[in-house]
Design a protein that fits this description.
- By secondary structure, this protein is mainly α.
- Helices cover 75% and strands 3% of the residues.
- The protein is built from nine helices and two strands.
- β1 and β2 form a beta hairpin.
- It is elongated and about 95 Å long.
């Protein structure tokens, strides 16, 4: 009987030791898991900070692009007058003296009148610029710059925040291009972009977004399409 009790006591002690070993092992495993969790938290925090920094950079770049849109358009417009480098440049405008001390520069051809109207626009003489573009459209309906002149006539209204008038002019450009009545329709994507912008400014956001989406689908690799994508992202 005494041997039986000794055996039972030994088994109990061994069982207790085994349980303690298991507990220690589990505690170590828990500690290891906690360390892994802390490392994952650190990595997650680091990734979150990286994403935040990237988002801020994208926002700053988008703002810079938006602020420089006018400068980009000016450069694009200037390039249109340089697309035929082999053609001799037209003679400089003549200086015509009138009564008094006033001297007036008179453009002698379509390119000079177009550039004259464009210069007025970028100097801030919006109304005078519009008059010059209207004169261009009357005098040079067969010019390669005819479509561009329609666009900039619409842009003069857009600059004055007369968005309904601007939309009418931009739509006129699109209509004439679709009907094949304009030789060169390089401003077609720009007109779609500004129509979209105009509707958004007028409060018809959904219609404006539709024009921007159509622009991206029709002219995906153009600069206006890139600007349209940024505008749509800003509206989300």
């Amino acid at each position: 009987m005494k041997k039986f009790y000794l055996f039972a006591l030994s088994a109990l002690v061994l069982s207790s030791c085994a349980s303690e070993d298991k507990i220690v092992s589990l505690q170590r495993e828990i500690l290891s898991i906690r360390q892994d969790l802390n490392e994952l938290k650190d990595q997650t925090r680091s990734n979150t900070e990286a994403i935040t920094n990237l988002t801020s950079r994208v926002d700053r770049l988008s703002q810079t692009v938006s602020q420089n849109t006018t400068d980009i358009e000016k450069l694009k417009a200037s390039r249109t007058t340089e697309e035929k480098p082999q053609v001799k440049q037209p003679p400089p405008p003549q200086e015509v003296k009138r009564e008094g001390k006033e001297e007036v520069t008179v453009p002698q051809n379509d390119k000079q009148l177009y550039q004259y109207a464009l210069d007025l626009y970028f100097k801030g003489n919006i109304e005078e610029s519009r008059k010059a573009f209207v004169e261009f459209l009357k005098k040079y309906p067969d010019s390669d710059l005819y479509g561009n002149a329609i666009f900039w006539a619409g842009q003069t209204f857009y600059a004055e925040k007369k968005y309904k008038d601007a939309i009418d002019i931009f739509n006129l450009l699109i209509q004439k291009c679709d009907e094949g009545k304009i030789k060169r329709c390089v401003k077609y994507p720009d007109a779609m972009l500004k129509i979209g912008y105009s509707y958004i400014e007028m409060g018809d956001v959904e219609k404006g977004k539709k024009y921007l989406q159509d622009l991206i689908q029709k002219y995906p690799d153009t600069e206006p399409a890139s600007l349209a994508k940024k505008k749509l992202e800003a509206l989300r």
